[in-house]
Amino acid sequence: xxxxxxxxxxxxxxxxxxxxxxxxxxxxxxxxxxxxxxxxxxxxxxxxxxxxxxxxxxxxxxxxxxxxxxxxxxxxxxxxxxxxxxxxxxxxxxxxxxxxxxxxxxxxxxxxxxxxxxxxxxxxxxxxxxxxxxxxxxxxxxxxxxxxxxxxxxxxxxxxxxxxxxxxxxxxxxxxxxxxxxxxxxxxxxxxxxxxxxxxxxxxxxxxxxxxxxxxxxxxxxxxxxxxxxxxxxxxxxxxxxxxxxxxxxxxxxxxxxxxxxxxxxxxxxxxxxxxxxxxxxxxxxxxxxxxxxxxxxxxxxxxxxxxxxxxxxxxxxxxxxxxxxxxxxxxxxxxxxxxxxxxxxxxxxxxxxxxxxxxxxxxxxxxxxxxxxxxxxxxxxxxxxxxxxxxxxxxxxxxxxxxxxxxxxxxxxxxxxxxxxxxxxxxxxxxxxxxxxxxxxxxxxxxxxxxxxxxxxxxxxxxxxxxxxxxxxxxxxxxxxxxxxxxxxxxxxxxxxxxxxxxxxxxxxxxxxxxxxxxxxxxxxxxxxxxxxxxxxxxxxxxxxxxxxxxxxxxxxxxxxxxxxxxxxxxxxxxxxxxxxxxxxxxxxxxxxxxxxxxxxxxxxxxxxxxxxxxxxxxxxxxxxxxxxxxxxxxxxxxxx
Length: 642
Ligand code: WT7
Description:
Rossmann fold; alpha/beta; single chain
């Protein structure tokens, strides 16, 4: 079976038009301004130069930020470990906030927050600076110190951003957990990180309803002895249980806090955050990012890929609970001093006009969203976007999963037919965009174009040989980049496995082909990671939630192609003796997954089977199930059995 068969998508290469963007829209792009400053008149010249002068390029980017003390070397690469800007001292929050207090940016809006119900709050850079300082001081008063881990389990409200910045300001390490995850998922992450404090809210609003958060925290921390304080933000004003001495409301903690809390001086290589993501085992992986290199990587890509400028109004529809929100809502935009919209709710609530209304009302000029959101809106039809002029839009970005050419073209036609569509490929582990077009490139719908400046990526077979154009292989990164993960928390071996699956290169876990022009076509995961609506879910995590039910003996969860969500989850369940299959039981099992893992992990379909295909050593052969679902010729399975 060829690796090219393992695509989750079957649309690749069905569209062969090449799109150019309106030259007026892209002529003063940040990347071309940089190119000209280096004496280059074309993008190709700049890319060629950066390829041979990787450290020089990243040094240029780092030099645009402020450092408390300079670095000794740009890159210290001892395979598979990189240290970037080693010896330097900095704090990413200083560059997001303090640095702007001496410039015009001070009085500019950092973000407009729009609640789902229409509530509004506006934060200038100066007021955000104040809020972050007070929150940071409250944390210090609670005994949080440099290096301590603090968990953030909040909905998309301003306090989510403020909490992250406050934690990082004092040199503590944030671990943000998406508020849609269930109590078991929360417990696992808080436990692994050994967080001292959990920051949550009474509840959140989603699709017009109050979603409770505090009960999930109460349940989870029964298994988390490291936690000694819970800070609760009042959002939905629903009644919650508060434990005296352990739980306190944020407003009470802030009431006695100082207005200024000095920014901790960090080593460039000191950890900034741990973000958990799903892999092929039952346990989530704690991806570790650091202050210095991560800062430089997200600063540079926000500027050159999203092309954000001071006069822009930017909107990224992601949640800071995932890496997209970390890099391109919280850190990247603030580092660049830009203004954004931060929206609490669902893009189609109360109706499909919401997304277009928000764009029109706020004058959004750069939009960054997911293929799933685009396909949802596409399915509601043209009449919704047609009502809104959306005149200021100039850049359209997408992320999280492969985008099919049909959705790509609809995105452009519905939102702005002269604009570049920037399909950015990257991962929690990479921290920043890796394979992506920039606004001045000719664009091919369905392709993420080329490796970014200062990145060397390729497509290889399992033995590490580059594969010829048009052939399927593994997407690999050949050289270190500043915002690469530095570790998997408490799992050094797992970290190394990314760089040792194919000796000498970083293996991303995606299948890919490259065309004659060097454009990358990413086809989906080759491992047991499911990408449902852009969410990254581990088969084994879903299976272990299912097996937690008394009726279940064994379970296998796989991703199957879905027109809107990219992939849907199908679960195969073997029941224990004495239990019989029913729709009722299937619903109960879905409920079990919802409570444990959260609503995003709920199987779309549960089927009961007598047995599961396994290897001789007893491992479930999910690939076989997947191949059968896709209608592929499975053929000889003897090699698979190993
Ligand atoms: C996986 C990483 C990157 C931030 C959000 C997801 C898939 C991501 C693309 C894209 C095709 C994509 C890959 C990757 N993916 N962007 N533009 N085209 N696939 O981060 O949760 O760590 O997931 O998302 O499969 O490995 P993540």
